[in-house]
Amino acid sequence: MTPCIVLPIIFPLLAAATCVMLAQHRRWQICISLLSSTLVLLVGAGLLQTVTSDGLISLTLGEWPARYGINLIADRLSSWMVLMVGVLGLACTLYTIRGIEPQRARWFFYPVWNGLQAGSALAFLTGDLFNLYVAFEILLMGSFVLLAHGSTRLQLQGAVKYVVLNFLASTFFLSAAGILYGLTGTMNLALMGQTLAGNPEGGALLAALLLLLAFGIKSAVFPLFFWLPASYHTPPTPVSALFAGLLTKVGVYALIRVFTVVFPEELDMLSPLLAWCAGLTIIVGGLGALAQKDLKRTLCYMIVGHIGYMIAAISVHTALAYAAVLFFLVHDMLAKSCLFLTAGSIAKRTPQASDHGGDLWRRDPVLSSCFGFGAMDLAGLPPFSGFFAKLLVLMALFQSGAYALASVALIGAFLTLFIMARLWIQLCWEPGTAATATPLDTHPLSQRIPIAGLALLCLLVGLSAGPVINSALRAGEDLKTPVAYRQALLGDTK
Amino acid sequence: MQLMLSAIVGILYACGLYLLMRRSLLKIVFGLALISHGANLLIMVAQGGHQGIPPILGAHGAIPEGMVADPLPQALVLTAIVISFAVTAFAVVLLLITYRHTGTGDLADLAERRSE
To answer: Strand (E) positions, A361-459?
Structure first.
């Protein structure tokens, strides 16, 4: 199984290369992209099973010793994330069949689409800081192109902000990597942590702050979130959905990974800062969503608000908190992608979706049920996965005595519930105007299947929360004391 | 030498950040380029004083006498240069397309037109 760890990166890259060659053949490009996502999903599931039964999988590329070589490594967290790349990739690619204009396929939509997924998979699997930087750049380059692809005015406005802020974040990341290399002489995360442990240096704290800034911008934490609501609603629906599900979560993942392995001491020091940022993110995300009228824009602010929960859990950094983050990540990826896909379908079917009044329940019960599932999941109602995700975060916060942050999280949860209920009433129950009274055109199956699939997965993860939470709890312990992870990265040569 | 290079890194960052805060898109693109140069130079400076020592092996793979500079930062910088080149190229094209589609390269104008 060990060499299989490269497959989630290789498949999308191969698919991207093949799609470039088949630029004139839309159907082939779609088939190849679907195949690649399915394979990533299967490999992700395989990785997860192997990691659960046999422990970490680590592969040293080129057999270089730990100080120089690049390691790919999969623990529970990474495997879960790779699995989610497959799930989201498959769902969103299915949606692209009828969800984007056909001529986009000729303008290299699918190569970039697959490249983005390759970059995410690499970010989740690498054990090397510079490699993580490269992975970020691959997925950012993909997201830059996808965001501007089609060049409508609105897209260009969003893309400018997105490109500038994310490029700035990458530069901070690169600077931190350079400083850390100067301090430790390696890019291997474990070796870096080992060298820095016990001798607190100003340089290390500087690098930690720069990395916090970089990952903070990428995961849209207060006060660094403004680019997200300005850009995420502009591209076509499947692109927004993949961004919403995947991109900010890569930032959260990188934050956990780098800070647990390299900077456990600095994480202690920075946790009050993280707690403040998390609380403000939750509040600002919730209030921002409250003020929005447009469905997709509301959801953009909900992304920001829910990032706050994960950062809140990271700020208390107990084993339970890390478990909560893992479960929250899985839940949030499913719910956000589902809601964005649904929002796209709803917007297509209610011409004045931005003014609401959809009367959707009568016109399309299936679509509105899916929206209801996603909304209830996001609001954290049992038995959906969102309930357990929020419960775990709150438990972690209470366990560590962070009562203020827990109350903020509860207020945020109430805001989410309120916003989702309001959206549901306006879109589904409120009788529409004369224009919306007309019967709906048929909703294509290629859009119905991914939406319904993701909505059911939201429910399924909630219904079978036991095994997922068990896996998350084990992952949390591994993240709190990453001994095995470090050993695997260091290999035989110390 | 170290001190001068460090100062240059600082100046590059300062100029880049200043340009990023301007309204003109062209200046923002220049700012991005300057900052990425600053970061590349920072990697070279942060690895310490090995200036002037070659990071290469001698003939037939012989290890040269005396000190050898660490080749890894140079490899890292090379990668980073390629990446920043790609991003800068993308930013220039984005600027061009934005200008063609909206007739302005000014961020404030872009925002105003949306509110119309």
So the answer is: none
Beta-bridged to residue A178, according to DSSP, are: none
| Token pair in block for residue B28 | 């923002």
Interhelix angle A264-291/A295-316, nearest 10 degrees: 160
Do A384 and A457 touch, CB atoms closer than 8 A?
no
Interface check B14 vs A, CB under 8 A = no
The residue among A160, A169, A102 whose CA lies nearest residue A139 is A169
Are the C-beta atoms of residues A129 and A193 closer than 8 Å to each other?
no
Q: Which of A140, A149, A153, A164 is the mutation pick for testing B, counting most B CBs within 10 A?
A: A164
Under DSSP, the state recorded for A245 is: I
A71 in helix, strand or coil?
strand
Predicted confidence at residue B49, as pLDDT, reads 63
Angle among Cα B45, B48, B49 to the nearest 5 degrees reads: 100
Run of H or E including A14: helix A7-21
Give the pLDDT band (50/70/90) at residue A288.
Answer: very high
Cβ(A109)–Cβ(A148) below 8 Å: no
Among the partner residues A141, A159, A168, nearest to B86 by beta-carbon distance = A141
3-state secondary structure of A340: helix
Which parts of A8-157 are beta strand (E)? 57-61, 70-74
- Interface residues of chain A, partner chain B, Cβ below 8 Å: 68, 130, 133-134, 137, 140-141, 144-145, 148, 151, 153-154, 156-157, 159-160, 163-164, 167-168, 170-171, 174-175, 177-179, 181-183, 185, 187
pLDDT digits (tens, 9 = 90+) for B55-106: 666 677 677 777 777 788 888 999 999 999 999 999 999 999 888 888 877 8
Burial (0-12, 13-18, 19+ Cβ within 10 Å), A280: middle
Query: What is the least distance, in Å, from the CA of A448 to any CA of chain B?
Result: 33
User: How close A306 comes to chain B (CA, Å)?
Assistant: 27
Token couple for A371: 């929206």
Q: Which of A176, A140, A181 is nearest to A255 (CA)?
A: A176
Q: Which domain holds residue A57?
A: 2-490
Residue A305 CA to chain centroid, in angstroms?
13
Average pLDDT on A445-462 reads 91
Residue A56 CB neighbours (<10 A): 18
* CA separation for the pair A331, B30 (Å, rounded): 41
Is residue A70 helix, strand or coil?
Answer: strand
Count of the separate structural domains present in chain A: 1
**Spatial separation of the C-alpha atoms in residues A304 and A277, rounded to whole Å:** 11
Phi, psi for residue B79 in degrees, rounded to 5: -60, -45
Q: What's the gap between Cα A26 and its chain centre?
A: 27
8 Å CB contact between A274 and A301: no
Q: Give me the helices (H) in A100-201, please.
A: 109-125, 129-148, 153-184, 189-196
Taking the C-alpha atoms of residue A182 and residue A178, their distance in angstroms, rounded to an integer, is 6
**B32–A164 CB contact, under 8 Å:** yes
For A157, which of B36, B91, B114 is closest by C-beta distance? B114
> B2-51+72-115 is classed in which CATH architecture?
Orthogonal Bundle (1.10)
